[in-house]
Amino acid sequence: MRRPGGHDEPIEDYLDELLGCLRLPPRATRRLLAETEDHLQQAAATAEQAGASRLAAEREAVRQFGTAAQVAAAASAARRTSPVAALGVLTWSGVLLGGIGLIAVGVSGALAAMFNLAVGRGFVGALPNTYSAAPCRHFLEVQPSAANCAAAAVLENSHDAVALRLLAGFLGLILVCLAWWSRRYLSTDPSFRRMLSAAISATAALAFGVASVFLLGMSVDIAVHYGSRGVGWYLSGGLVSLVGTVIAGFACWEQLRRLRPWSYLQVTA
């Protein structure tokens, strides 16, 4: 950049160079540039008052401040997360993802209960399994009204698909509430939180996607080979996982749209 008359602007040139070297979140970048400009302008004003020309004063201020690459490297190093803080973030993310997954399991239990009422217990509990003597004794003990082992297995499986999944959902709700409450202790940097949200959403979308493919695939396989009996066991989970994939995928896209990581590729290309 040039001043009227063709003179250089060392401070402005330096700030442009520093901006190109920085790899910080937007807010941190703005603050560092403002602080750097203020420091350089004050140093140049002091040198100018001592008798130096404005151009020489700006050049000397820039020289004493250090190269843009050095300043950018120091700023990046200062923002590096400590191992303890990184472990805390990973633990928090694991608790949140685990809680979301367990809540999805609970929702699938509610859907299984609807299947039991609407279609019958055999749609959920009649799994194509062969049971040995020990499991059969257990099924008949907990389901004394059943006439045989197969009927007792259907009743117990359909009951477990609801009760145990709802219990898992309740535990997941506790974990999510705990993660939400402890969120205040994480970094308050907006860019960091957006990146963390995008990473969590992407992980959830991937996990839900894999689960939906597996569970819906098992539902189709059982339907083809054994008919409708037992399909609801997997179908209830597959449908919830499919909805979770869509929701998490949309959330991930919204976070990426705000972060716009592809803009960095366009700049460096």
List the helices and strands and how they pair.
Blueprint: H1 10-21, H2 26-49, H3 54-65, H4 68-78, H5 83-118, H6 121-125, H7 133-142, H8 149-182, H9 190-226, H10 231-259, H11 262-268
Helix pairs in contact: 1-2, 1-4, 2-3, 5-8, 5-9, 5-10, 7-8, 9-10
Percentage of residues assigned to helices:
over 70%
Q: Point out poorly predicted stretches.
A: 1-6, 264-269
- Individual helix count: 11
Global shape: rod-shaped
Terminal Cα span: 23 Å
| Amount of beta strand | under 5%
Largest sheet: none
Number of domains: 2
Structure classification: mainly alpha
Based on CA atoms alone, the radius of gyration comes out at 31 Å
What is the number of strand segments? 0
